[in-house]
Design brief:
The complex is a heterodimer of chains A (223) and B (364).
Chain A (H helix, E strand, L loop, with lengths): L3 H31 L5 H9 L6 H12 L4 H7 L10 H27 L2 H8 L4 H12 L1 H17 L2 H6 L10 H10 L3 H33 L1
Chain B lengths: L3 E9 L2 E9 L4 E5 L6 H9 L6 E6 L2 E5 L2 E2 L7 E4 L11 H14 L8 H7 L15 H14 L4 E5 L7 H12 L8 E5 L2 H7 L2 E6 L2 E7 H5 L13 E12 L4 E6 L2 E6 L8 E7 L3 E4 L10 E10 L6 E8 L7 E7 H7 L6 E6 L3 E2 L5
Parallel strand pairs in B: 3-9, 3-10, 7-8, 8-9
Antiparallel strand pairs in B: 1-2, 1-4, 4-5, 5-6, 10-11, 12-13, 12-15, 13-14, 15-21, 16-20, 17-18, 17-20, 18-19
The chains are: A mainly alpha (223), B alpha+beta (364).
Chain lengths: 223, 364
């Protein structure tokens, strides 16, 4: 028997997170790739922090920030809630921060690989900076976007520590797949854990395979 | 319509640039000098790709830069051809060509050449639906030139467009560049290749170590013994001649220019066709008397206008062609011993014997 609720919740969380990450990650990656500001590497380090930080540490600080006495609580008060912790919205915020480096890094690399020249060419052909960004930089950086999106999605699906800290285990709201597996194991429901864990294994393998194939194909089209 | 007037002063890294020059509204002006003399930097400043806060630039009467106030590149009606064609790899040849065209049209710029004209002129028809990655170096550069022309420029900038190409691709592109003389817009052409400049340029801005050494019409600078051009081993001058007559019996064509005529082998087009003839200084010898029995066809009366330094083995002698010496100028390289043996002096009437004439443009 498969419990669909955590699966559905996980996919929803991963999709929303990936969409938000692409929207906020692109300008950050662009700025990191093009800026000459001396403090830019500092910003890059902050973005990359979740790579090395234990998820429980990030989760702990997020819990404080999202809770009733943090900015999250203040924000939640606007629509009459007490806190953003243990809500789906809080989970999205946590996932976005946690997966940010996985989106920013490949997109930044892709933007850097383009170099100045194509944008200079676009400018000499009357394209405004925004026009050049949309019609030259974005299409040329497409492989980076693909990698970033796939990594963000997969990473969110697999996240555990942060979710447990700020989301808890509320069925239908914050009980995602990884937490559900943990639950089943705790309750000694090995069979149900097997179904979910096996599903995750197949999913992860498929994602990596698709990504590598697409990257190779794009690389070939470009060469 | 007025041409271009530029002044840039500043530093890029450790390189100091301080230049001021003008370019006429029509024809090709070459920015010429050794590698690292700053010619590409000047071109990038004109395009607005690089900014020198201490600068001033007017093109066709419009101010493009006045100190810190500067039009961004995308607001300057230019066409820019880079050294490596720099085509957009994600677009087809056709989409590359129309990228600038559609944007310039939206801005209401006047058309310089039509799409089908450019395609025909540069022979792009078979390439249109291909990807730039599948083109040869010469083909790519042809597309880049077409793309720049279609962006409806008021000024065409070319940064050594031939230097990345092999001999064959160069010969393939040069006739297309010669056709640019027919455009009614000014062209700035960066090059460090004398042969290229002599074949294409009408005007010359000589640069060295970030400064302008000299500027003026090509033939004037070529015949100035004070400039480094006259001291090159391959020094010579370009004469702007027109076809005057053809002798079918011997297969010879007479070219007329200001100050004389030249007889050259071959059929070179209808009477009135303009041709560029190059005469190397080493191919010119001087005599006091007109030679009476000689196999050399061209012997031009001239007067000695001046000379380079007279302390080495060879002397560069500047000649004014024609009996009065008022026509175009010619450069002769003779030994100092000959100079002394003939007792030559500035103002003397002489005869210049021309051993060979090179015709520079095949497709006038």
């Amino acid at each position: 028997m498969v419990d669909w609720q955590p699966i559905w919740l996980t996919l929803k969380l991963a999709a929303v997170t990936t969409a938000i990450l692409l929207i906020i990650g692109t300008p950050i990656a662009w700025w990191l790739a093009r800026s000459t500001a001396w403090w830019k590497e500092g910003v890059a380090a902050v973005v990359a922090l979740p790579l090395v930080l234990p998820p429980t540490v990030l989760g702990f600080y997020l819990l404080l920030a999202l809770g009733p006495y943090g900015p999250g609580g203040w924000l939640a008060a606007l629509w009459g809630e007490r806190s953003l912790a243990f809500t789906f919205g809080g989970l999205v915020i946590g996932s976005v921060l946690y997966s940010l480096p996985f989106v920013v890094q490949p997109i930044r690399n892709a933007f850097q690989a383009i170099g100045d020249r194509p944008l200079e060419v676009a400018a000499t052909l009357r394209a405004s900076p925004l026009d050049a960004f949309l019609t030259v930089a974005l299409p040329l950086a497409r492989p980076g976007f693909l990698t970033g999106a796939v990594l963000a999605f997969a990473h969110t699906v697999g996240e555990f520590g942060v979710v447990l800290m700020i989301g808890g285990n509320i069925p239908g709201t914050t009980k995602v797949l990884s937490v559900a597996i943990f639950d089943h194991v705790e309750a000694l429901e090995w069979e149900r854990a097997h179904v979910l864990a096996g599903g995750m294994l197949v999913f992860s393998f498929t994602v990596i395979l698709i990504m590598m194939t697409l990257e190779r194909r794009m690389g070939r089209a470009r060469a | 319509m007025t041409g271009l007037s530029a002044r840039f002063r500043g530093t890029v890294g450790r390189f100091a640039l301080d230049v001021a020059f003008e370019a006429p509204a029509r024809g090709i002006t070459a920015l010429f000098g050794p590698s690292g003399c700053g010619k590409t930097t000047v071109l990038r400043c004109v395009a607005g790709l690089q900014h020198m806060p201490d600068g001033h630039l007017t093109v066709g009467g419009a101010v493009w830069q006045d100190g810190r106030r500067s039009r961004p590149t995308h607001a300057r009606p230019i066409g820019f051809v880079f050294q490596d064609a720099s085509l957009f790899p994600h677009l087809s040849v056709r989409a590359n060509l129309t990228y600038g065209q559609s944007r310039a049209a939206r801005l209401g710029a006047a058309e310089v050449v039509r799409f089908d004209e450019v395609v025909a002129l540069l022979g792009l028809e078979p390439l249109l639906d291909r990807s730039p990655q599948r083109l040869s170096g010469g083909e790519r550069q042809r597309v880049a030139i077409g793309r720049a022309l279609l962006s409806r420029p008021g000024l065409l900038l070319m940064d050594e467009p031939l230097s990345a190409l092999d001999r064959f691709s160069k010969d393939e592109i040069l006739p297309y560049l010669e056709a640019l003389h027919g455009l009614s817009i000014p062209v700035l052409y960066v090059s460090h290749d004398v042969a290229e400049v002599e074949r294409l340029a009408d005007h010359l801005v000589l640069l060295d170590q970030g400064r302008v050494v000299a500027a003026g019409p090509l033939e004037q600078l070529q015949a100035d013994p004070a400039l480094p051009l006259a001291r090159l081993p391959e020094a010579g001058v370009v004469l702007h001649a027109t076809v005057a007559d053809h002798d079918p019996d011997y297969g010879l064509t007479t070219l007329a220019f200001d100050g004389g005529v030249l007889v050259v082998p071959g059929r070179l087009g209808e009477a009135g066709t303009p041709r560029r003839a190059r005469i190397a200084a080493a191919d010119v010898s001087l005599t006091r008397q007109p030679p009476r029995e000689s196999s050399i066809l061209n012997c031009l009366p001239a007067r000695i206008d001046g000379s380079g330094p007279r302390d080495g083995v060879m002397i560069e002698v500047v000649l004014g062609l024609g009996g009065e010496g008022r026509g175009e100028r010619l450069l002769a390289r003779i030994t100092r011993r000959s100079w002394d043996a003939l007792g030559l002096a500035v103002g003397d009437a002489v005869y210049a014997q021309v051993k060979s004439v090179a015709l520079l443009n095949r497709n006038p």
